[in-house]
UniProtKB/TrEMBL annotation:
Listed SUPFAM superfamilies: S-adenosyl-L-methionine-dependent methyltransferases
Origin species: Thermocatellispora tengchongensis
Pfam families in the record: Spermine_synth
Listed name of the protein: SAM-dependent methyltransferase
Domain of life: Bacteria
Keyword entries, A-Z: Membrane, Methyltransferase, Polyamine biosynthesis, Transferase, Transmembrane, Transmembrane helix
GO molecular function, one term: methyltransferase activity
ATP-binding keyword on record: no
Spans through the membrane: 27-46, 52-75, 82-102, 122-144, 156-176, 182-198, 205-229, 486-506, 518-538, 544-562, 574-590, 602-622, 634-652, 658-676
Domain PABS stretches: 310-466
Length: 687
C-alpha cells in the first residue's frame, strides 16, 4: 500500500481527542512531551534514588514498556489517560518523601565505594519506580498512538519523529541552562493540560490537581535543597569550619563526592595527595606543565600549584563542580593565571590536545553515574582502559610521569589498574597502598623506570586479577567476564512483568504475531543505538552534549529514512537488508583505534557514516514494512516492545563487548527478514 492510497483510507479522528488541536500539532506535541518526560524521569529519579544513578536504563526500560503498552491500548478504550498525571504526581511525592542512598559495597557491580543505606530497600523502591515509569509514559504514548490512524502511516511516523527531536531539543536546552526540576515539572504540567483538557469538570480536576501537585512538590524541592543542577547531578554543598580550617563538602545525587580544603591541610591530612609528586622524578627538578583530569572543586589544582607547577590544564566534565570551586575554594586555584580550565571529558581531551606534560594526574575521577542510554558505561569508563593509558604516555615529555589515585575498595582493582599501566608503559609502576581500609592507593609510572622513584617494588598482580580493561569492554569494576547475577535476576523480573502487562493491556499475544519482524527490528535498533552512543562517547567524549547530539543524530537518520521512503522509490526489502548487512560489516571492520588516529573533523565524518549507515538502512526497512501494516498502532507497539527487550540485551556487552553487539544485531535482523510475511515481502519488493 502506498502513502497516497493510505490517505484515502485514513479513519476519522477519535472522539476522545480534543477537536480544537489539529491532529498533526497534537501528534508533534504528544510525541515531544513523551520523549521529554522520559528524559526528565531518568534524570530526576536518578538524582534522588541513588540506585538509579547506576541503573539508568532501568527507568528507560520501564519507559519503553509504557510507550509500547500505550500504543497497544489504542482502540481498546476511548477514555482519556488521566492515570498518567495522577501516577506521576504519586511518584514525585513518594520519591521526595523516601529518597534513597545506597550501600554500594557489592562486588561484581559497576560501582565500589561503600556507603550506608537510607530509605526504602532496593527490592521495594525499584519495582515501584519501574512500574510507575511504565504507567506514566503509557499516557502520552496512548495520545500519540491515537493520532496514527488519522494519518497515512509514514506521515504519522514522520511527525512522531519531529516531535521526538523537539523533546530532545527542549530538554537539552534546559540542561544547558542548568534548569531545576521545577521547570521540567512545569513543562509536564502544561503539556498534560493542553493534551488532556476535557469538557467535564471532573476530568478537569483529574488533570489540574496532579499537575499542580507535581509543580508544587518540585518547587519545594528546588527551594529547600539548595541544589545546583548540572547535566549529570543534583549538586549540593555544605561549608563549615573544621579545626579552624574552612571546608566545603560537596555531594552529588546524595553521595559525598568531594571536599574543597586548603592545599596545605589536605597534604597534611591525607598522604596520597603528595605521593604523585614524590614518585615522579621530574617533579623534583621541573614541573612546567601539569594536566589534572578530574579537577573538580580545585583542591588537586591547588596542590599542583603549591608544588611549583608553572602551568596547569584542569579538566573537569561537570561545569557546576568547577563553579563551586571557582567561587568557594579557600585557595582560589581557578583564579590563578597559571591555570586553564577545560569543561570536557578527560579521555576526549587527551585525544584532542597536542600538548605534552611533565605530570599527568587522574585525580579521583569517579563519576558516580552512567552515560544515559548506555547500560554499563560510566562517564569515566574510557579513562581506565589500556588504550587511555597509552594515550597518556604519548602526552608525557621525556622524563615525565603519569599518576592516579582513588579509593578502590578491592585489592584486585589496584592490581588491575597497575597491570594496565604496566602494559601501557612497558614496565612496572610504583604502587602505594596508603591505607588497607578502603584500599586508598596511588599508582605512578614514569616514561621510563628512571623517571619514577618507587618506595618499594610492586610485586605484580596477584593470581586471579582480571586482565586490563580495553576500549571495547571498558568495565573496570566487573571482575569476571560475566553478567552479574543482580542484573540477570532484575532483567528476568522485568521481562516477566512486561509479558504480564502486555497480556493485560493488549489482550492475546496472537494479535502481535503478524508483526514479529517489527518486534525484532526494534530489538536490533536499540542495540545499534547503544553501539552509536558508546562509540561516539569514546571518539568525542562522554559529555552530555555528545550524548544529546548522538540521540538527536539517530532520530535525524530515522527521519531521513522515512522521508526517503515517502518521497522516492526505494529498493526492494532484500536489497535494503543487504545494505544493512554491509553497514554492519563495515562497522565491525573499522577499528576505533583507526578512527581515533584521524583529525577530529575527518573523524566526525567517518564516524557518522559508519554509525548511521546501518541505522538508516534498518529504518528504511522498518518504514517500508510499517507502511504496509494493517494496524499501525499494533505494529508500532510491537516495535517499541522490541526496543525494550533490546535495552535488556545491552548487558550482553559485558560478555561480548560493544563491538560484539553488532553480531547480535546482525542475527536479530536476519531473524526479522526470515519472519517477514510472504505477502508483505511481495508487496514491498515491488516498491
Amino acid at each position: 500500500m502506498t502513502a497516497a492510497a493510505e490517505a484515502t483510507t485514513a479513519p476519522r479522528p477519535s472522539d476522545a481527542q480534543p477537536a480544537w488541536l489539529p491532529v498533526r500539532g497534537r501528534l508533534v506535541l504528544a510525541s515531544g512531551f513523551m520523549l521529554f518526560l522520559e528524559l526528565a524521569l531518568i534524570r530526576w529519579t536518578g538524582s534522588n534514588i541513588v540506585h538509579l544513578s547506576y541503573f539508568t536504563n532501568f527507568v528507560l526500560l520501564g519507559s519503553f514498556l509504557g510507550i509500547g503498552l500505550g500504543f497497544l491500548r489504542v482502540g481498546r478504550t476511548k477514555r482519556q489517560p488521566y492515570y498518567s498525571p495522577i501516577t506521576l504526581a504519586a511518584l514525585v511525592l513518594i520519591i521526595l518523601m523516601f529518597p534513597v542512598t545506597v550501600d554500594r559495597d557489592t562486588e561484581g557491580v559497576l560501582y565500589w565505594t561503600s556507603l550506608s543505606t537510607t530509605g526504602p530497600p532496593a527490592w521495594l523502591i525499584l519495582p515501584v519506580i519501574f512500574c510507575a515509569a511504565a504507567v506514566v509514559l503509557m499516557g502520552p504514548a496512548e495520545l500519540v498512538g491515537r493520532c496514527f490512524p488519522e494519518l497515512p502511516r509514514l506521515e504519522a511516523y514522520r511527525y512522531d519523529l519531529i516531535g521526538s527531536l523537539s523533546g530532545i531539543a527542549l530538554f537539552t536546552l534546559l540542561s544547558f541552562l542548568s534548569a531545576p526540576p521545577v521547570l521540567w515539572g512545569t513543562v509536564a504540567a502544561v503539556a498534560y493540560i493542553v493534551l488532556l483538557w476535557p469538557r467535564r469538570p471532573l476530568g478537569q480536576v483529574l488533570v489540574i490537581l496532579p499537575a499542580t501537585v507535581v509543580v508544587a512538590a518540585l518547587s519545594v524541592e528546588t527551594l529547600t535543597a539548595g541544589a545546583l543542577w548540572s547535566p549529570y547531578y543534583k549538586v549540593t554543598s555544605d561549608r563549615f569550619q573544621y579545626d579552624g580550617v574552612p571546608v566545603m563538602d560537596i555531594q552529588v545525587n546524595g553521595i559525598p563526592h568531594q571536599q574543597a580544603i586548603p592545599a596545605e591541610r589536605r597534604l597534611e591530612w591525607e598522604r596520597q595527595y603528595a605521593l604523585p609528586y614524590e614518585r615522579a622524578a621530574a617533579a623534583s627538578g621541573r614541573l612546567d606543565d601539569v594536566l589534572i583530569v578530574g579537577a573538580g572543586s580545585g583542591t588537586d589544582v591547588a596542590i599542583a600549584l603549591s608544588k611549583g607547577a608553572k602551568r596547569v590544564d584542569a579538566v573537569e566534565i561537570d561545569p557546576q563542580l568547577l563553579r563551586l570551586g571557582r567561587e568557594f575554594h579557600p585557595d582560589k586555584p581557578y583564579d590563578d593565571p597559571r591555570v586553564t580550565t577545560h569543561v570536557t571529558d578527560g579521555r576526549a581531551f587527551l585525544e584532542r590536545t597536542s600538548r605534552k606534560y611533565d605530570l599527568i594526574l587522574f585525580a579521583l575521577p569517579d563519576s558516580l553515574t552512567l552515560v544515559s542510554g548506555a547500560s554499563s558505561l560510566r562517564l569515566e569508563s574510557y579513562l581506565f582502559t589500556q588504550e587511555a593509558m597509552r594515550a597518556a604516555r604519548e602526552h608525557l615529555k621525556p622524563g615525565g610521569a603519569f599518576s592516579m589515585y582513588n579509593y578502590y575498595r578491592e585489592r584486585w582493582l589496584v592490581d588491575r589498574l597497575a597491570s594496565t599501566m604496566q602494559a601501557a608503559f612497558g614496565h612496572k609502576p610504583c604502587v602505594d597502598v596508603v591505607t588497607e581500609a578502603g584500599q586508598q592507593a596511588v599508582i605512578t609510572a614514569g616514561v621510563t623506570t628512571a623517571d619514577q622513584r618507587c618506595g618499594a617494588e610492586w610485586p605484580g598482580a596477584a593470581a586471579g586479577t582480571p586482565p586490563p580493561a580495553g576500549d571495547d569492554r571498558p568495565f573496570l569494576y566487573i571482575k569476571d567476564r560475566a553478567i552479574p547475577q543482580i542484573y540477570i535476576v532484575t532483567l528476568l523480573l522485568i521481562l516477566i512483568v512486561s509479558l504480564l502487562a502486555v497480556r493485560v493491556v493488549a489482550g492475546p499475544y496472537g494479535r502481535m504475531r503478524p508483526y514479529g519482524d517489527l518486534f525484532l527490528l526494534g530489538v536490533g535498533f536499540l542495540l545499534l543505538e547503544t553501539k552509536s552512543v558508546t562509540g561516539f562517547a569514546l571518539l568525542f567524549g562522554t559529555t552530555w552534549v555528545v550524548n544529546a547530539i548522538v540521540f538527536a543524530g539517530v532520530l535525524v537518520a530515522v527521519l531521513a529514512a522515512v522521508e526517503v521512503t515517502r518521497r522516492f522509490r526505494t529498493p526492494p526489502l532484500p536489497v535494503m537488508y543487504a545494505v544493512l548487512a554491509a553497514g554492519l560489516v563495515l562497522a565491525w571492520l573499522v577499528p576505533n583505534s583507526w578512527l581515533l588516529s584521524l583529525p577530529v573533523p575527518v573523524r566526525a565524518v567517518a564516524a557518522v557514516v559508519i554509525a548511521f549507515l546501518p541505522i538508516f538502512a534498518a529504518n528504511v526497512v522498518f518504514a517500508k514494512r510499517f507502511s504496509d501494516s494493517s494496524d499501525s498502532t499494533l505494529a508500532f507497539g510491537a516495535n517499541l516492545l522490541g526496543a525494550m527487550v533490546g535495552g535488556c540485551l545491552e548487558y550482553l556487552a559485558l560478555l561480548v563487548g560493544y563491538r560484539g553487539l553488532l553480531v547480535v544485531a546482525a542475527v536479530l535482523y536476519l531473524g526479522a527478514f526470515l519472519l517477514l510475511p510472504r505477502r508483505g515481502r511481495a508487496a514491498v519488493a515491488s516498491g
